[in-house]
Specification:
By secondary structure, the chain is an alpha+beta fold. The protein has two domains: 44-244, Metalloenzyme, LuxS/M16 peptidase-like (Cytochrome Bc1 Complex, Chain A, domain 1, 2-Layer Sandwich); 265-474, Cytochrome Bc1 Complex, Chain A, domain 1 (2-Layer Sandwich). It has helices spanning 3-18, 84-94, 101-110, 135-147, 153-171, 174-186, 199-204, 207-217, 233-244, 293-305, 310-318, 349-365, 370-386, 391-404, 408-412, 414-419, 423-433, 447-455, and strands at 44-47, 53-58, 64-71, 95-96, 99-100, 116-119, 124-131, 223-229, 265-270, 277-285, 326-332, 335-344, 440-445, 465-468.
Length: 475
């Protein structure tokens, strides 16, 4: 065979190899599986004489114990002083029981863990995960941090310096400031609307303020120690009684019911030359554990809450107006709020919002196809399962349940209720709860460029407009 014939034969072989033998149909997508029923792990609650609760939750097979101490003492308890609970939590972590921060960290490290401390609007929380054999010692250390902070002036000064840097970073973030403005609009007279201190408020915060918060708000009657994982139940209970049994009860938790205000309004905050338009769109939603709560969460998933939701598919995947759209349902004691958010290219802000409003109206007038609804029902049901896959996530769900007063039956029936939602119900809830004439819309961006686009939208004609000024570090 000549060299030419060899090359031609080889070329022909490559062509044959690269050509399909026969056209094969694309494999069919596997059917969507049915989510398994969910059952929250058994919870045993033991009440100490001083009113503190120890909640035992056996979970998993790894010899680890997750400890979460939650006290309903937060910024709500001292209105007008945002971040005081955060400052207190950070300070207590810097030194307690006569040990400094390094000694606390070394002690917990020897047990296989590390300490997390955080304070917020509703509560103060300390948590760690340690080897099960060290659970009792970790409870003792946690009691020192929660009950006996050192309150050293040098530690306080470092905490305040950190908080001032954090404030500047928050004010420089359009996303954070949009959230701050939205909270103020939704809760104008409630502490939930007071998320951010001013620089002057931080300057005025003194060590004595944190000591007062500690002495008046931190107490056994507001506290639950969640013990999750593998543990010696009797040994852990004995350690909890030793560490917390003589803690002063103080006043029981005060529940601050909050129902978001609604109204057709547009809040504009100018950031000249901004490379994106940050938007928050909010409406009241069904409260947790009410008849339409779970069905509305399916509605949210279909509209904007899931990555494959209609709004995301429309303005992210199809049109490329934004990279970050999404919606969620946030709950507070007394109510809930649906919020949609995105960072949009300024030149197409109006076009993007026109598509958002179009998708809301389309869902309100036309029920989704059965297959689309099934996918979103399954997503909603499985989301709860995903949120309870480890001890820390279970603890978060339990704290949330105690905050909102959620009954155990809420979790046990969640999957069943999600899967029972009908396409017609999804459309009906969109029409009932997502009324655009009740929306609060916050826009942070180059208002000179964006405002004319928004005012041209039918949904915003005649809407009251409020122009607000951002802090200098945010503009």
């Amino acid at each position: 065979m000549t060299r030419l014939n060899i090359l031609l034969t080889a070329a022909a072989s490559l062509i044959v190899a690269a050509s399909p033998v026969s056209a094969q149909p694309a494999p069919a997508e596997p059917p969507i599986g049915t989510p398994r029923p969910f059952k929250m792990p058994a919870i045993e609650r033991v009440h100490l004489k001083n009113g503190m609760t120890v909640a035992f939750v056996p979970f998993g097979s790894v010899p680890q114990t997750t400890l979460v101490l939650n006290t309903f003492a937060g910024d709500l308890n001292v209105p007008g002083h945002p971040w005081v609970a955060n400052a207190h939590a950070e300070l207590s972590k810097r030194g307690a029981g006569g040990r400094d921060a390094n000694q606390l960290a070394e002690a917990l490290s020897a047990m296989g863990g590390s300490l997390s401390a955080q304070g917020g609007a509703d509560n103060t929380q300390y948590s760690t995960t340690v080897l099960s054999d060290h659970a009792g010692d970790a409870i003792g250390l946690m009691a020192d941090v929660a009950r006996r902070p050192n309150f050293a002036q040098a530690d306080f000064d470092r905490v305040m310096a950190d908080l001032k840097r954090q404030l500047a970073q928050t004010q420089a973030s359009p996303q954070a400031m949009a959230g701050v403005l939205l909270a103020k609009a939704l809760y104008p007279t409630h502490p939930y609307g007071d998320l951010l201190p001013t620089a002057a408020q931080l300057d005025q915060m003194k060590l004595a303020d944190l000591q007062r918060f500690h002495d008046q708000q931190m107490g056994a009657a507001r506290s639950t120690l969640y013990v999750i994982g593998q543990y010696d139940r009797d040994a852990v209970l004995a350690a909890a009684e030793k560490a917390f049994g003589d803690w002063k009860a103080r006043q029981p938790r005060k529940v601050w019911l909050a129902k978001a205000t609604s109204g057709h309004r547009l809040i504009l905050a100018d950031r000249p030359g901004s490379q994106q338009t940050t938007i928050r769109l909010a409406l009241p939603a069904p409260a947790v554990d009410t008849p339409t709560d779970v069905p509305f969460r399916v509605t949210d998933a279909l509209l904007g809450g899931a990555f494959s939701s209609r709004i995301t598919t429309n303005i992210r995947e199809d049109k490329g107006y934004t990279y970050s759209p999404g919606s969620s349902v946030g709950a507070r004691p007394g109510g809930a709020t649906w919020t949609w958010n995105a960072d949009i290219t300024p030149a197409v802000t109006g076009k993007a919002m026109a598509e958002v409003f179009k998708e809301i109206r389309r869902l309100q007038s036309q029920p989704p196809a059965a297959a689309e609804a099934l996918g979103m029902k399954t997503y909603t049901a499985n989301y709860l399962l995903i949120r309870t896959t480890d001890a820390g996530l279970i603890a978060s769900q339990l704290v949330r349940a105690d905050l909102l007063g959620i009954k155990p039956s809420y979790f046990s029936s969640y999957v069943q209720r999600a899967m029972a939602v009908t396409p017609a119900q999804i459309s009906s809830l969109a029409a009932q709860d997502l009324k655009l004439d009740r929306m609060t819309m916050v826009v942070v961006g180059d208002i000179k460029s964006v405002e004319p686009q928004l005012m041209a939208l039918p949904e915003l004609k005649g809407v009251p407009v409020q122009h607000v000024t951002l802090p200098k570090s945010a503009s």
